[in-house]
Amino acid sequence: MSTKTSADSGSSKFLPVEPFDIIVFGGSGDLALRKLMPALYHRWQDQQIPATSKIIGSARTKMSSEEYRQLVRDKFEEFYPEDKLAEETWNAFAEHIHYVGVDALDQKSDDWDDLKDLLDGSDEKLRIYYLALPPGIYGQVSANVDANGLKTDRTRIVLEKPIGSDLESAREVNDSVGEVFDEEKIFRIDHYLGKETVQNLLILRFANSLLEPVWNSRHIDHVQITVAETVAAGERASYYDKAGALRDMVQNHLLQLLCLVAMEPPIDLEADSVRAEKIKVLKSLRKIDSGTVRADTVRGQYKEGSVKGKPQKGYAEEVGHPTDTETFTALKVHIDNWRWSETPFYLRTGKCMSGRWSEIVIQFKSVDHLMLAPESGRVQPSRLIIRLQPDEGVKLMLMTKDPGPGGMRLRYVPLNLSYAETFAPRYPDAYERLLMAVVRNNLGLFMHRDEVEAAWRWVDTILGAWSRDDVPVHLYTAGTDGPVQASVLLDRDGREWFDGA
């Protein structure tokens, strides 16, 4: 990650946002130190954050602002060792970092006065509360902010996923926060929506006359969406054992990607227009219930193995007891509307897989008639690959003639757009982009409560069927790409998973 700025690279200059104060509850936690503070530093480095802004960390831990600044720096250097801090830039940024120890669950704590003093005189400035906290306390923290006079007419609140663990709990979270903040002030964050390639999906689809006419079931054979991780549950094991892959990844990340691939053209790119089309997709998802759950879903759990050459314990050994929580899931999903009738979407996600990659594969249908002799080689259908991580980019696989004499020989080759090469040396990551989107009031990159609840409504049906039908959890060796049953899911349809290469 280069410290060279956009101005040095000749790429688009970042436009400054308006001054703001951001208060991060959970400011000493992993999310704040690993993602949020580095994101804010990079936006400061690119001169996007005005000098009158304040960045305030808050948690129950007692420490001084100077101690917190040092903690932020230490963690930055630990997590991003290749990103050398420029001393002058860092020192200027650090002057705007503050820390206030507050137990956000204690409404009557005197510590709220310390936060109020730090914010004194800034009621007209944009104020953002970022809750890097467990979702079960979002409502209580929101109420405590309001009760202590820290909510202004220009206050926005950011909620991290997951919003609840099922439809009922999601409604409770939305209702409790909604009692304090209007819907247009609530930013439910899904960092996948901040990835450059995800945002580019709408432009790729709707601004290119080459693609939109063939973006339907008449021309597309199927769609694959994969989010593969090499990491184990690790320190999140206690949380993860109550969640599993379906709740942790499918309900939010994968369904959001599915919506952007499948949605109809919105009338414009305003938040309400985009969200309305995504909600239509979620409501069109065919239910996976007791009649189809064994045929259309796979559950997996990693056992002892090796990931990238390092030994890895099995998941049950990590959590310390036998468990049927899935660390991998694969789904065959249908969208019952005119555009996608009978075109399946295959979703998969898992931990301790062979590699770390996230991508969308649009597999087009084969050509209707081949005029070539068999010895020319196999004609493969066109394939559009949208890589979200690592190495963000777009690749279109096409058939072409292999140059040279000696007859007609075919080769399957890519037309390749690499973001790293095209927009070098650096462009903002997901959290950088989303934090600035909150400041700009761009709600289109965040989830409406209706989206969250529609996704949970569909996922709850699967969870219920898994429980009622006692759907088994198949073991897979850590360092592989899930249980063999995931391959069978596609093999029954004469298809196979794209390997992520």
UniProtKB/TrEMBL annotation:
InterPro entries: G6P_DH, G6P_DH_AS, G6P_DH_C, G6P_DH_NAD-bd, NAD(P)-bd_dom_sf. Substrate binds at H191, K195, E229, D248, K351. The keyword Transport does not apply. Keywords: Carbohydrate metabolism, Glucose metabolism, NADP, Oxidoreductase. GO terms for cellular component: cytosol. One of its GO terms (biological process) is glucose metabolic process. SUPFAM superfamilies: Glyceraldehyde-3-phosphate dehydrogenase-like, C-terminal domain, NAD(P)-binding Rossmann-fold domains. NADP(+) binds at R60, K161. Residues 23-200 form the Glucose-6-phosphate dehydrogenase NAD-binding domain. Residues 202-497 form the Glucose-6-phosphate dehydrogenase C-terminal domain. Catalyzes the oxidation of glucose 6-phosphate to 6-phosphogluconolactone. This is Glucose-6-phosphate 1-dehydrogenase. It comes from Aquisalinus flavus.
